[in-house]
Amino acid sequence: MGLLLDGLAVARTLYQARQRRDFDAAVECLDEEVLLLNVATGDVYRGHAGFLEYARGWGSALPDMAFELMKFGGTDGRLVVEYEMEGSHTGSLVTPRGHLPATGMQVQLRVCDVLEVNEGRITHIRSYFDTSTLLRELGLITGTPLHAPERRAPLELYVQDVDAHASERHKAIVQRFIQDVFNRQDPRATTDTCARTYLWHGGPLGEARGLTAYANVLAAFFIAFPDIHLEVLDMIAEDDRVVLRFIMRGTHLGDFQGIAPTMKRVIGGGTSTYRMLDNRIAEEWWQGDVLTLLQQIDAAPSTAPLSR
């Protein structure tokens, strides 16, 4: 009974961490060589990195995803967990076989996971869900009975090939990064799209090495401009690079680089170049019009031409 209770405890911790989007806490529940099989699609994920790819993939595809744990049960070494995932498909669902572009549809999916636990760590996960239900809710298939095996379509029929569409996949990841991090002012969301070793080159604003340091830069910026919104004007992707041209708008309501709040609206343009690695943003070169921003909050002299 003690082993069973330990297994139930680690399983509950895993799914609660996923619900909080605390993926670092989630991997603490897993064996380093954990094997995850998505039975619905046949995709296999190995180790902590594989699990993070799987969990972050769902988190990126359904950024408002909520978990409801339904049932736990099992024996000493094997557990069954039933839960429901619900959210809006507003991000690309990236899988080893390709990516499913955002449909904007609301998804409510019942999932059953079979876990194998050894010495307080989860060593195997087999995840089951009905692909026809998912495809129907995404608007990709209509009128499909839930229990008609001959009508069920595998997910890979609808995804786009990874290699042939790498640039589109990279753009989708950057777009999700802009929406979740900047336009929702949430530095924690960087874990869904960025590598832990993220490098940020901010030009006149300095540099940040590592995702924690970069999140601190963002947090300070969002304190200064809590309503900041970034509009993407152009986005181009080639090989492992994504380049975008943007306009930022916001209100100076907090301290910025030692400058007290002025309550003034600001607008400024710029560009960012992102380097992609393993479906994550690994590095960014940011070039924003800092001088114009400082002029708008009366922290730099105007360069407007003198009247004659």
Structural class category:
alpha+beta
Strand order of the largest sheet: 2-1-8-7-4-3
Mean pLDDT: 82
Helix count, DSSP H or I runs of 4 or more residues? 8
Strand content: 35-45%
Distance between the termini: 89 Å
Q: Quick one: how many beta strands?
A: 15
Summarize the structure.
The chain has helices at about 1-20, 25, 45-60, 130-135, 165-180, 190-195, 210-225, 290-295, and strands at about 30-40, 45, 65-75, 80-90, 95, 100, 105-120, 120-130, 160, 195-200, 205-210, 230-240, 240-250, 265-275, 280-290. The protein is an alpha+beta fold.
Secondary-structure map with pairings?
Elements: H1 2-19, H2 23-27, E1 30-38, E2 43-46, H3 47-61, E3 66-74, E4 78-88, E5 93-95, E6 98-100, E7 106-118, E8 121-128, H4 131-137, E9 160-161, H5 166-182, H6 190-193, E10 194-201, E11 207-209, H7 211-224, E12 229-238, E13 241-251, E14 265-277, E15 280-288, H8 290-296
Please name the defining characteristics of this protein:
308 residues; alpha+beta; six-stranded mixed β-sheet; 15 strands; 28% helix; elongated
Characterise this structure.
Strands 2-1-8-7-4-3 form a six-stranded mixed sheet, with helices on both faces. A six-stranded mixed sheet has the order 11-10-15-14-13-12. A three-stranded antiparallel sheet has the order 5-6-9. It starts with a helix and ends in a 12-residue tail after the last helix. The protein is built from eight helices and 15 strands. Mean pLDDT is 82; it is low at 143-153 and 160-164. A hairpin with a 5-residue loop joins strand 10 (194-201) and strand 11 (207-209). It is of the alpha+beta class.
